[in-house]
Amino acid sequence: MITGSSSASVPEESLAALQQEVQQNLEQLKPNVMLETMKGWIPGLIAFGIKLLIALAIFAVGSRVIKVIYHMLNRSFTRMDMEISLRKFLLSVLNATMYCLLGFIIAGQIGVNSASIVALLGSASIAVGLAVQGSLANFAGGVLILMMKPFRVGDYIVSKDGEGTVHTIGLVYTVLNTVDNKQVVIPNGTLSNSPLTNVTAMDKRRVDIKIGIGYSSDLKRAKEILEQIYVNHPSILKEESIDIYVDDLGASSVTIGGRGWVATEDYWSTRWNMMEQIKLRFDEAGIEIPFNQLDVHIRSGNTETQNR
């Protein structure tokens, strides 16, 4: 009995000793594994640090280059007499574009896959473009108007959607002030894609007046009066030619006309004043200006009916 008990306790003592030995070996092995792992990280960390330093250097140099280009473009746009709203917009877009390019270069230097970023931005741009395509068309029209300058602020323009003096030219809409002090807002896409007339684009305009006189009136006297009105009017430019002519031999009148040049800002006042003078002078000279008349003839019926 004593011998059997002693043999049973031997394996338990051996197992405890084995466990203690394994624990000691693990404690000795753990620091070695962590150290080896950290040693494996060191080359990667050093490489990443070098890339990061290079990226910071690229950012510093690129920022300086972008600022230089920005100031050069600003001076160039100013010398071109570009509209201030367009100049600010283009400078902002170009500045943002240059910084985006710099960001892609830095991302590629660090190791980020820029192709996926470009694909994502492209998809987002397409979605946004489809959603606001009407506004983008107006925006593109505004850029074209500000760059090509078919009209400026203060010009009087005539388009199919309205006419008036240009008050403001925005990137999306153009605002006109009418002669009766109303504001007309027209999308730039419409203005850039349709014909329009810039009435005040030139320094001078020609005043064309045509008037009909009766066949029984004195044609030569009528031409003399019309010529005198043109020659003696203070707003008519004397250095430009004045033409008096017979324009048409109509069914009920002889149409005579005159041409003379005035400063653009004097056009309407001159035309209105000359039309009044023509009427008064023709009346004084007995020159008839034909107009439509309606003659009514009343017939009383035949003789047989009257006798009854």
From TrEMBL:
<feature type="transmembrane region" description="Helical">
    <location>
        <begin position="41"/>
        <end position="66"/>
    </location>
</feature>
<dbReference type="Pfam" id="PF21082">
    <property type="entry name" value="MS_channel_3rd"/>
</dbReference>
<dbReference type="InterPro" id="IPR023408">
    <property type="entry name" value="MscS_beta-dom_sf"/>
</dbReference>
<dbReference type="InterPro" id="IPR045275">
    <property type="entry name" value="MscS_archaea/bacteria_type"/>
</dbReference>
<dbReference type="GO" id="GO:0008381">
    <property type="term" value="F:mechanosensitive monoatomic ion channel activity"/>
</dbReference>
<comment type="similarity">
    <text>Belongs to the MscS (TC 1.A.23) family.</text>
</comment>
<dbReference type="InterPro" id="IPR010920">
    <property type="entry name" value="LSM_dom_sf"/>
</dbReference>
<feature type="transmembrane region" description="Helical">
    <location>
        <begin position="117"/>
        <end position="146"/>
    </location>
</feature>
<dbReference type="GO" id="GO:0005886">
    <property type="term" value="C:plasma membrane"/>
</dbReference>
<protein>
    <submittedName>
        <fullName>Small conductance mechanosensitive channel</fullName>
    </submittedName>
</protein>
<dbReference type="InterPro" id="IPR011066">
    <property type="entry name" value="MscS_channel_C_sf"/>
</dbReference>
<dbReference type="InterPro" id="IPR006685">
    <property type="entry name" value="MscS_channel_2nd"/>
</dbReference>
<keyword id="KW-0472">Membrane</keyword>
<keyword id="KW-0812">Transmembrane</keyword>
<keyword id="KW-1003">Cell membrane</keyword>
<dbReference type="Pfam" id="PF00924">
    <property type="entry name" value="MS_channel_2nd"/>
</dbReference>
<feature type="domain" description="Mechanosensitive ion channel MscS C-terminal">
    <location>
        <begin position="207"/>
        <end position="289"/>
    </location>
</feature>
<keyword id="KW-1133">Transmembrane helix</keyword>
<feature type="transmembrane region" description="Helical">
    <location>
        <begin position="89"/>
        <end position="111"/>
    </location>
</feature>
<dbReference type="InterPro" id="IPR049278">
    <property type="entry name" value="MS_channel_C"/>
</dbReference>
<feature type="domain" description="Mechanosensitive ion channel MscS">
    <location>
        <begin position="135"/>
        <end position="200"/>
    </location>
</feature>
<dbReference type="InterPro" id="IPR011014">
    <property type="entry name" value="MscS_channel_TM-2"/>
</dbReference>
<dbReference type="InterPro" id="IPR006686">
    <property type="entry name" value="MscS_channel_CS"/>
</dbReference>
